[in-house]
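Our preliminary data section would be incomplete without showing what the modeling component actually yields. Below, a chain of 567 amino acids is followed by its predicted structure, encoded as tokens that our downstream tools consume directly.
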Amino acid sequence: MAFDGVVTKSVTHELNQSIKNGRVNRIFQPTSTEVAITIRNNRQNYILLFSIHPSYARFHLTEDDYRNPEDPPMFCMVLRKYLSGANLVDIKQDELERVINFTFKTRNEIGDIGEMTLVMELMGRHSNLLLLNEDKKTILDSIKHIPSYINRHRTILPGATYIPPPTQNKLNPLTISGEEFVRRLDFNSGKLDQQIVQTLSGTSPMLAKEIVFRANLGAQSAYSNSFETFKQIILNNDFTPTIYLGDREDYHVYPISHLNVEKKVYSTTNEMLDNFYSGKAEKDRVKQQAKDLHRFLSNEVKKNERKLKIHRQTMKKAEDADRFQKQGELLTANMHLVKKGDESVKVLDYYDPEQKEITIQLKTDETPSENAQRFFTRYRKLVNSTKVVKREIHKTIHEINYLRNLLQQIDTARESDIEEIRDELKDEGYFKKQKQRKRKKQHKPKPDEFKSSDGTVILVGRNNNQNEYVTHKLAHRDDVWLHTLNIPGSHVVIRSNDPSEETLIEAAELAAYYSQARMSSSVPVDYTQIRYVKKPAGGKPGYVTYDNQKTLNVTPSEEKITKINKN
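Predicted structure:
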């Protein structure tokens, strides 16, 4: 992913056009690596996202919704203290490096006007976001603290002197000529793309390969021309934000012609970045947070599958119950033919229409009566076990479906959903509840809310807690309820008793997308009215039965869901 100096320049250029001179309305820090600032400019609200995620470090405008924690972290409190109500007066990139200064005009406690600088340093896993005081020399706070024993070059702590990241002594491609660029290359050494990365600041490997590709391995003049084209596009901000949909998705704002893959072009770099990164960082965090849950649930599924196999083997053995009963009755009727010590006896099978003879094996150390009683005992034992095993099979299948449903919910979960799933497992007795000194505040579940093309509200539960809330609390009895047929997935409710066909299809696509079959085609989705959806007594969370349903077959896709989401 090439969030290099050129992409940084494109984002900075767009932000200067859209949010410069805007006023800070809201600041919150949804995670330890992200800060979101709402800026109002030209009668419109913009959410500016800063992320120092080790894999997805970036900054851009976003349309995603971010959770505002009840207890804001210290860095968020510092930003609110100094930047709330401030005006963003300048956004400046340090040459073509990935260091950006956001200058805010503020008023202190006594009303004096001053300036604060928010510095975004994009350096992969070493990225950071720092707030500097008016002289730009002292760090007020940073999202990540770096003491001197970790980094000898500079200390990043409140009150420390701000030292910019070390320079890499590369050339700024915007200030050199094509001839000077060519002189820096050693054509005899080869690997020209790597040389370009080492020579030019703000240039990623993808960009360097493109410069070489456009020169087409020609003479030195071809490389000079290729560089000049590259330079002019950047100087003129003539960017083409594009996502390249190959085996490994990537993006850039400079036209990349050496990648022969499907492309998706965007009108702005911010829109491209928001679409590319949307959900990626959260999915990564959820994956880490839910690692233990996923492992536990997978092991529970395997354990119950082994149990189900044993139960089915027991049921297979129970098929011999009638044979033991028949042998006991035939032996009782022919007791006069048997004496103790006999290994077997041949008797006439009067249950058989053809009256054939059968041989009954006996235990030599038992009397004829004891042998007969043994057959009847085995018969009763198998009959009784069949009743119990049938119940256990039903219970085990139900348990497996419940656990698989939770696994599916983890796959599509957000961070807040993981905690709800964890609490549910504690309530169901899978995890031991910890004693809490402070009573945990109960929050209403927050299911996802979508709007169909005609404006009808569609509710989607993302876990069992939300599923039950959507189905049994929020929905009216005439609303339409949807769920994938025999596939673990979300409860979906259309807030209408007579939705249009288009709304019904969009809701079915949501049900299919938020299910285990999200990557499948022609997914069957049942729909019926809420009045026909019932929760059985003692049923697991999220488990319901329903009737009077009809079925739709839909093929879900992320593009369709994004379109519905934008409604």
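The chain is about 40% helix and 20% strand. The CA atoms of residues 310 and 393 lie 10 Å apart. Preliminary results of this kind motivate Aim 1 of the renewal.
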